[in-house]
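To illustrate this point, what follows is a protein record of this kind.

___
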Amino acid sequence: MAASARHTVLVVEDDPSIRTLLTSALHAAGYAVVSAGTGQDALAGTERSGPDLIVLDVMLPDTDGFTVTRELRARGIYTPVLFLTARTEVEDRIIGLSSGGDDYVTKPFHVQEILLRIRAILRRSAGLHAPAPPPGERPLLRYADLTLDEEAHEVHRGGQRVPLSPTEFRLLACLMAQPEKVLEKQQILQRVWHYDFAGDTRIVDTYIKNLRRKIDRAEPLLIHTVRGVGYCLRLPRDHTR
């Protein structure tokens, strides 16, 4: 039995021929597959089947994939999303990824590329749903009143749980792994996303903005911009630890 057989993929595509192609290819690769043709069906299908990953077309008859992803995140559902679209502009890619998506493939596509991207995303999120060891045995990252539990995929600030998407979680882990060190945007891009987006680092800026809204809701602010260089997790200079 293929290693991927334990994974379920939800394919959301309104074009029946593309939906059939992807469904057949994923079945052949050992995945369990469910499908949908609209945004509403995608939301319902996610709630019902709890997929491990969603292949989501951006242009749907009732809404768009970016809106569907934002709605999923608003409901506290952080299933990884691979966008599939005919849009090729970098701006569209940034909008999609900043809405909570994990990767982006443009049409026309090769099925093998889809399969490779799916495997890469599932590898990155593999530990997020694994049974967690007892709290005393978990590897924790700590800084100030911020705690990141890598095994349980949980973040707490001041004792309060902070819900993050998988990408936001990886970004925060990247910063917390080297606190008080300035990380260049290109470094962050490669460590969190594992490849660059044509050298465009604006996706890092967008995700940092999203992360700040969740992490830095109270003083002291921990995520700082080093203008012209990148970002750093540290206490304010005038704050005494």
Remarks:
- The mean pLDDT is 85.
- Helices lie at 16-28, 39-49, 65-74, 90-98, 111-124, 166-177, 185-193, 202-215.
- The first helix runs from residue 16 to 28.
- Residues 225 and 231 are 5 Å apart (CA to CA).
